[in-house]
Amino acid sequence: xxxxxxxxxxxxxxxxxxxxxxxxxxxxxxxxxxxxxxxxxxxxxxxxxxxxxxxxxxxxxxxxxxxxxxxxxxxxxxxxxxxxxxxxxxxxxxxxxxxxxxxxxxxxxxxxxxxxxxxxxxxxxxxxxxxxxxxxxxxxxxxxxxxxxxxxxxxxxxxxxxxxxxxxxxxxxxxxxxxxxxxxxxxxxxxxxxxxxxxxxxxxxxxxxxxxxxxxxxxxxxxxxxxxxxxxxxxxxxxxxxxxxxxxxxxxxxxxxxxxxxxxxxxxxxxxxxxxxxxxxxxxxxxxxxxxxxxxxxxxxxxxxxxxxxxxxxxxxxxxxxxxxxxxxxxxxxxxxxxxxxxxxxxxxxxxxxxxxxxxxxxxxxxxxxxxxxxxxxxxxxxxxxxxxxxxxxxxxxxxxxxxxxxxxxxxxxxxxxxxxxxxxxxxxxxxxxxxxxxxxxxxxxxxxxxxxxxxxxxxxxxxxxxxxxxxxxxxxxxxxxxxxxxxxxxxxxxxxxxxxxxxxxxxxxxxxxxxxxxxxxxxxxxxxxxxxxxxxxxxxxxxxxxxxxxxxxxxxxxxxxxxxxxxxxxxxxxxxxxxxxxxxxxxxxxxxxxxxxxxxxxxxxxxxxxxxxxxxxxxxxxxxxxxxxxxxxxxxxxxxxxxxxxxxxxxxxxxxxxxxxxxxxxxxxxxxxxxxxxxxxxxxxxxxxxxxxxxxxxxxxxxxxxxxxxxxxxxxxxxxxxxxxxxxxxxxxxxxxxxxxxxxxxxxxxxxxxxxxxxxxxxxxxxxxxxxxxxxxxxxxxxxxxxxxxxxxxxxxxxxxxxxxxxxxxxxxxxxxxxxxxxxxxxxxxxxxxxxxxxxxxxxxxxxxxxxxxxxxxxxxxxxxxxxxxxxxxxxxxxxxxxxxxxxxxxxxxxxxxxxxxxxxxxxxxxxxxxxxxxxxxxxxxxxxxxxxxxxxxxxxxxxxxxxxxxxxxx
Length: 956
Hints:
This is Variant-specific surface protein. InterPro entries: EGF (IPR000742), Furin_repeat (IPR006212), Giardia_VSA (IPR052798), Giardia_VSP (IPR005127), Growth_fac_rcpt_cys_sf (IPR009030). It comes from Giardia intestinalis. Keywords: Membrane, Transmembrane, Transmembrane helix. By secondary structure, the chain is mostly beta strands. Among the domains are: 21-151, no CATH class; 176-248, no CATH class; 252-320, no CATH class; 335-398, no CATH class; 587-673, Hormone Receptor, Insulin-like Growth Factor Receptor 1, Chain A domain 2; 676-731, no CATH class; 749-863, no CATH class; 868-927, no CATH class. Strands 59-58-61-60 form a 4-stranded mixed β-sheet, with no helix packed on it. Strand 41 (451-453) and strand 42 (456-459) form a beta hairpin. It is elongated.
């Protein structure tokens, strides 16, 4: 996953497939937790412990580079950004987009409003939503007058300021001369200057005091003067090769020991060891390997007073000591007292030897260039291609196979090659000397027919292949470790530890190590390996762009490939076939089921899929124990305990019947955990929905006929007492609800049932019942009119259709939930907070709705109705592909708005459809028992009559 082949990736800055163990541990998922595929390009959220979302990727707060971005994390989001001048904290709160708490100075997207500046390096955060102010641009860009970062002229400058051509540094192989980059050849740096390879700048020869002409010397690593500015001065070359301009008196004096002697005939200051001469120069020749000397008179040869290290004086000449010895009195090794630099003196009895500092077999240390052996061996300096750490002694760690560390250029020894033992070795990817090229991992003058320039190769010849800036031959090491056959500059047959990059040309890297997670790009396509992978299969090129990873077939050490092949993990779970992360099983062996409990996985037998789990057989991916609450796997949302349905009764979902819910109420069909039980049901102490009496739309704690708290449309609640919340349901406009109601005035509709809207003289309608106007006057509910209606309501009552109804109590709760000062303040139908206005009226069967009158859209239905499109339809009626159930008074529309409604309660005959005692004829056991008793009575009566007829009448 990566936004594009050229951008950083989602897991710790590296591109990873969604099924890789790194992505799984990070909890990388789509927005709102949606599952990703291996072709996905970015994360939308991060649920892994300690991970946070940043620029489409998941980063660990304790890892690199996450710790440099964020210092505190909560719920997959960074809560405190790190303090850094290249990063700023988004001042917007709350954030408009996830993962935008911390914004890079260079991030020109940000959250869409608050953002950085493209190609900016350091910046100042905005005070409010908006762009940051750039302080300094990234290398290769300059800050223009508009505050934007504009690219330097890539043909001339590496970095610049104020304009695209005002260079401050140059590309490899070019030298900065003022504000211009030059090629460093001939006199491009100008007269009296030289091209300095140490700083890639043009410098004045006058750095050597009194020098006017000079040149850079590769062996010395600095300038060598050839002409002094004063005609009276001479160029003096020291033993180490450095030069100075001196007067004759500063060169040498007659009959005085010194390191130089004066050749007056040539007007030169020469080293004592200088033996160069010509026909006119006889009498002015030094002594080979001499360190100090003196001349008795002009025109005579100097005599040597001390020899260079490694030589001893004999008969006026300097004779070489034994091998690698610096101080001796004869050519015999026994007289050696000090070894040359890079060697140490080893004494074994009477035998002496000067041993290279890096000779491990004889007591040296690998990579050591300077050492001592007084009392004990001590390395004091490492070779250029070794990293030095510690002090007195130092430790040397090899970082480059090239002895010169590729010319000493920083970051140039980065071509990692894996050997047949699984160890990485590093070779030159860039040569410090632009006239040398990385061929077979070492910097050489001969490009062997490959196309190379400025220290790198860009195209390889036949038999070679391009790899990390260099060309490699398949017939020699290290090229043979990566590829066995190359044709046309492309590796065609990689070794088992490498894979061929699809679509690579002879100008692109064509091979990559199976365990290289950084990867390489070919155009808009990126390819990566898998960490700790030993052998692999090449990926297929993504289309049209994106990232593709190799599929690992074998891992290093004891690790195993994941099921997808995109990771190598430790997998020691018993009976586990493959893991998805370290110690996290992803698939069990055929006879076992994968059980996940929190972050722990195990492989168990089928009968162990209990305690909130059920077994599920899978044709692919392995069998597993599924949590009862996993709806996506055939479970039921919020279900905490369940049992597997018999095969014959399973539909596509669910696979189980629920026996207990975590927080909701168990539906009467045991196929759902509900926030509220359906109409006609109540939740018992175990949160199981049980049937009320069939006349009740809702009830309190039992199924008694007198325990109703609400009725179905067309019926009203006849309370046990005026203050009681329970009662029996009777037909509308009957009983107490008809008493003292004016003729034809049972017309007020609340919750689908009719109530009296106008009473006879002396009475007023309160909660749908006509009560004495005197007993229900303020503050008890109604302010009477003289016509049997209420002119206003008081306290928590509201006015509706001529009467006053208590908000939040049946039947007023069908319209209003709260009222203050006699007016409804919160309507049921719209959820609106009213200010003295009436609640909107919804269509028939609808309890909540929105929209203009005549074109309302129902969002919730009354008891006895189901939702069909924008309307509510009775449970026993058909509508728009939905089939009702005869006699059903409590139901729910089918999912997908097609099929038969789910019926919870029927009224005629009196049947609970979920009761297991219902027989095939639709009668309950209670009904059957009643019929049986009636039959006994009838039969008993008939027997009694016959007995009387034949016996009693006979006697008569």
